[in-house]
Amino acid sequence: MEGSVRGSANYVPLTPLSFLERAAIVFGERTSLVYGSTTYTWKETHQRCHRLASSLVDLGISKLDVVAVLAMNIPAMYELHFGVPMTGGVLCTLNTRHDSAMVSILLKHSEAKIIFVDHQLLKIAQGALDLMSQDNSKLPILILISESGEHSFPDYLEYETLLRSANPNFDVRWPIDECDPITLNYTSGTTSRPKGVIYSHRGAFLNSISTLLFGDITTMPVFLWTVPMFHCNGWCLTWGVAAQGGINICLRNFTGKDVFDRIALHKVTHMGGAPTVLSMIANTPTDDRKPLPGCVAILTGAAPPPPQILFEMEQLGFRVVHAYGLTETYGPGTVCTWKPEWDALPTEERSKLKARQGLNHIGMEEVDIKDSKTMKSVPADGKTMGEVMFRGNVVMNGYFKDLNATMESFAGGWFRSGDLGVKQADGYIQLKDRSKDIIISGGENISTIEVESALFSHPAVLEAAVVGRPDDHWGETPCAFVKLKEGVHVQPEEIIQFCRAKLPHYMAPRSVIFENLPKTSTGKTQKFVLREKAKAMGSLFRKGGSKL
């Protein structure tokens, strides 16, 4: 349009790095981070991130160079989310549960020039570098993050030592293009063929703002870090808390008691976690609980939360915000936006409504359930299943070094999640399963999520996961792996009959195994492990050979 111009006065590339610059000015003297007895202000965090960036440049880091980190939720992990991108480099946060073999694969794939390592994870990193040296791979520089800042390992550079000698007035290398990469995140299902998801400065900015909005994270929140910062960069809240001048309460490890203690001590207002974290909190022994100083908002995602757990959290005084997304959508992509008129509904119905995945949040242009072949939207009948697909500014740039996988996932102009779901009459989506997890028994599709929800409503069940078990007649039948609450004993048949009273007969588990469930560090049950166990168990028969 005539008279319209674009220049430095009205256009600056979006980047969450701006959040820290503003926080240092607006909230400079306020507390930014607490870790045990260690406390920093936003002015100090700003200076430390600048020193970190200056050190990285001195070590040769430049635009698009990858800097990896293997660390728990400690101050250095938070600071690296700003310090690395300040250099024009790309931060790669590694899953703390990876073994040396997987870390070596990811370091080679990412071509990381430096790896920062939490001192408690040093053996894993050392093992990874040893494996890399065996095939003459170029090794990254290892920088140790020690707890006290003491130089206990003379063979390595040390984090605090680097910061002390660095320039606190580093000139930030701002992105010229807001679509430049800011981080590289490997998906939780990583195998020998890694899928590295590329985030941009623009996407990180927009999803940070979106998460603050739908999570109702207002100015100066107190955020308890129960979400791993390596997972989707803490759902983009590593940057988001800075935008609001909040206090980051860092935790290396935690139990239900630790959560209640920190909430009481620091007057926590917000936190996050997978449904397993919610379950841990809800099942914390009464003697280990403390009264909440106020309503604590807890964001949950990563896996569909059972309605029973949502109900129990509400009874404890938590306000659960249910979001859904994938690594490829910067974490949260949808939110089950709560409507005031639902407050008057019976408790069970409220919990079922909140367990839905909802609709796209303000930063995501669109979410839909589509037929994966025709790309037509499924009817909003709550029954017809299709694939969950996303379109918008908070979808990844693509998979690092894998253009074919990127184009395959973007086929048809939408990001194909691989999740199966239905659309309810009000437009809200509800997950039914991952496409690889759906059980097909006698031609009927069985949603493991629905079966798991029934299991969770049993008073003896702490955790549950359902997979398909081979069946010579039906093809496969539901097999439930269950962890019981402490001190409780029930028989498998009791669990089966309980489910049959709540579900269609064909959906109820035909076999129940009591054991601890294998988990990823983000709280997701490793169903591929359980599928292998169920497969090894073979087909289920009644006595005399007849099928159940």
TrEMBL record:
Protein family (similarity comment): Belongs to the ATP-dependent AMP-binding enzyme family.
CDD domains xrefs: ttLC_FACS_AEE21_like
Protein name: 4-coumarate--CoA ligase
Catalytic activity entry: (E)-4-coumarate + ATP + CoA = (E)-4-coumaroyl-CoA + AMP + diphosphate
Domain (AMP-binding enzyme C-terminal) ranges: 450-524
Entry keyword set: Fatty acid metabolism, Ligase, Lipid metabolism
A Pfam cross-reference name: AMP-binding_C
Domain of life of the source: Eukaryota
Cited NCBIfam families: PRK08162.1
Residue span(s) of domain AMP-dependent synthetase/ligase: 21-400
InterPro entries the record matches: AMP-bd_C, AMP-bd_C_sf, AMP-binding_CS, AMP-dep_synth/lig_dom, ANL_N_sf
Enzyme class name: ligase
SUPFAM superfamilies: Acetyl-CoA synthetase-like
Gene Ontology biological process terms, A to Z: fatty acid metabolic process; phenylpropanoid metabolic process
Record GO terms (molecular function): 4-coumarate-CoA ligase activity; trans-cinnamate-CoA ligase activity
Known EC number: 6.2.1.12
Gene this chain is encoded by: LOC120277322
